[in-house]
Amino acid sequence: MALIPSFFGNQRSSIYDPFSLDVWDPFKGFSSLSTRLPLETSAFVNTRIDWRETPEAHVFKADLPGLKKEEVKVEIEDDRVLRISGERNVEKEDKNETWHRVERSSGKFSRRFQLPENVKMDQIKASMENGVLTVTVPKVEVKKPDIKAIEISG
């Protein structure tokens, strides 16, 4: 077994040769995992949701392109858990059409967020515009303590 690999011909394929040009691929022969999964499990796994806090509210924004508001649910679960879920159905295949590529995801998604204690649970609002869901959760107003100036005598 040579210690220096040969780059000009004489390609070796010994499993004991550390400089062998054969590379073992443990996944060789397997088809892509995503092609074997049912469509329901390959859905919206990358649903992106931003959560920002302003002085007045917690604001959630979710990119849900192509979904209608009827296909999205915003719910409050026990103990202040905000749940955003929905479903995009697979397009029907027509026997007269040939699909060359399918990249848009379909299926169900669900995201959950634990809300802090300082929210007004009964005043949550949600709206959807141009495929962006906005959920606004107002915060309880924190009353600032009254500070009285006391004159110092002396």
TrEMBL record:
Lineage, top-rank taxon, reads Eukaryota
**Stated name of the protein:** Uncharacterized protein
| Source organism | Pistacia integerrima
